[in-house]
Amino acid sequence: MKDYKFDELRIALAIAGQGSVTRAAQLLQMPQPNVSRTLGSLERRLGLALFVRHRQGLIPSEFGQRFLAQAELMLEQHRALQSFSDSYKRSLQGGVTLGAPIAIHALLARHLLPALQRDMPGLILDLRTRNPSATERQYGAIFDSDCDLLISPFQPQNESLIARPLVNFRMGIFAAPAYLDRRPLTLAQAADLDGHDCITLSMLGGQRNRWQFPDAQGHLQQCEVSGVCICDNLLPAIELARQGIGLLYAPFYAVAADLQAGTLRTCLAHADGLSMNSYLIYRQRSTLPHRVQAVMEAIASQLPRILP
Predict the structure, then answer these.
(1) SS3 per residue for the chain
(2) What is the mean pLDDT of the chain?
(3) Is the model's pLDDT at 202 over the cut of 60?
(4) What average pLDDT does range 30-39 have in this prediction?
(5) CATH number where 249 lies
(6) Are 246 and 291 in the same domain?
(7) Are residues 196 and 267 located together in one domain of the fold?
(8) Are residues 41 and 189 located together in one domain of the fold?
(9) Range of the domain at 214
């Protein structure tokens, strides 16, 4: 079985069309010796002559006629395949799979994704809930093979992936008015958390979490808390906090509506709390379809603006 380079086939077809190596070289803007060598190399590998000399110039042999007809079909298929690939990569139509913690999905669904789909009507968004685990906190985020984009507080385990810093989420400690009526709390230092019921998150360690916040002087306060309830994502944790079960350590964006409605209150006496990093993780940009890049840029540019 012979392997044919597309450039070889193009040169052979140019010679057939021009009837001359010289004119084919001029058409292709190539040195004539290069065209002659390519033709000779191709004929030697084939073991058959593609052209015969005639007073009118070079004309295809009987074999050459059939070979060049197949070569033309092959080049046309190659052009069609290249056109399809280019069009597909530039297209804004098709699917984009976005992995993110469930609370971030809720934020994007409320403020960003509807406008994105209006601007890109052929876009199909596949939202996958990817709540980070304690293992990922230690070893790095897991980027599933069927994922196009992943939002995570952790950098990826796979170092070949791109981890683009996205936004810093302000963290705070919150409780329902009913809980604070029963057990008043003005949180100024770590010791103030002693004896309080807490709702902990699996991604921060399971039953025991380390909560951090700055005091009035900006010094870091840290406290190991033990959960009366453990949640693997923020949505049930927020609902438990609303019901007065205990204190909740969470990003401000996730409880913004509750703070506005008064169903939760911040417990920090001084500052807004520390920030938690987040990253937008994806494969090398050169391999990403245009629609994935468009969604990526929309998230990167607009998410910081919609955070409370």
Answers:
(1) CCCCCHHHHHHHHHHHHHCCHHHHHHHHCCCHHHHHHHHHHHHHHHCCCCEEEECCEEEECHHHHHHHHHHHHHHHHHHHHHHHHHHHHHCCCEEEEEEECHHHHHHHHHHCHHHHHHHCCCEEEEEEECCCCHHHHHHCECCCCCCCEEEECCCECCCCCEEEECCCEEEEEEECHHHHHHCCCCECCHHHHCCCCEEEEHHHCCCEEEEEEECCCCCEEEEEEEEEEEECCHHHHHHHHHCCCCEEEEEHHHHHHHHHHCCCEECECCCCCCEECCEEEECCHHHCCHHHHHHHHHHHHHHHHHCC
(2) 89
(3) yes
(4) 92
(5) 3.40.190.290
(6) no
(7) yes
(8) no
(9) 169-276
pTM: 0.68
Statement to judge: residues 18 and 117 lie in one domain: no
> For 239-249, what is the mean pLDDT?
97
The mean pLDDT of 149-173, rounded to a whole number, is 93
Question: Tens of pLDDT along 81-93?
Answer: 877 776 666 667 8
pLDDT score at 285 = 79
Give yes or no for residue 98 having a pLDDT over 80.
yes
Instruction: Say yes or no: 203 and 59 in one domain.
Output: no
Let me know if residue 1 belongs to a domain.
Answer: no
